[in-house]
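Give me structure tokens for this 223-residue protein.
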Amino acid sequence: MAIIAPVENGKLNYDYTDNSKKGKINPTGSTLGYDQFLQLLCAEMQYQDPLEPTSNTDYVAQMATFSQLEATLSMSETESNSMASSLVGKQVILKVTSETTGITDYVDGRVDYVMYENGEVFLSVNDGLYPLSSLDTVADGEYYEGITLATTFANMVKQLPLLENLTVDWEKAIVQLRELYNGMTSYQQRFVTEDSLKSLKEYEDRLSDLLKQQEQTKEPETV
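Here you go.
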């Protein structure tokens, strides 16, 4: 729990020393509980204008409002923890900004487990811990697999040489590409772009011509 500065002479004292701790305490006030709220309420009663005092009804209303706010925050935290727990085993995409470079990047993978530490929720993805606030996308397993296969397919096509530089030595790679596509489900094939498929067809046609030329240039066998 954060430390709230005491009220002295109607003002918050930010430079006070706690006898139970060594050195000066720097209160943050980031977390306000019942003890701190009552401390502020007592200070308000002590330093109110005697000519225009606050009524008891106003104090009760303040306490009721604070209780309602605290209950709402507690409910929100419970829902957040529940949502985080439901992510275990799911494929997610995280938006992460480096504290060193300030560059924002994306991390994708499966949530292995959820860890709660100091009131914060962390997701374990690819052996790393990331705050729940970095969550960008939750993906269905089949959807994620389709995206991954399509990306692999596109990268393999890009690794082929220029069409005019193609030789028969690339026959195995082109056959593997066709087998990869044919091995996908119809749902997974939907993620493969038309450009990638068009390129593969062009390479297959070019390879077919090269193999025919190679066959034609073979010397006839002597009987």
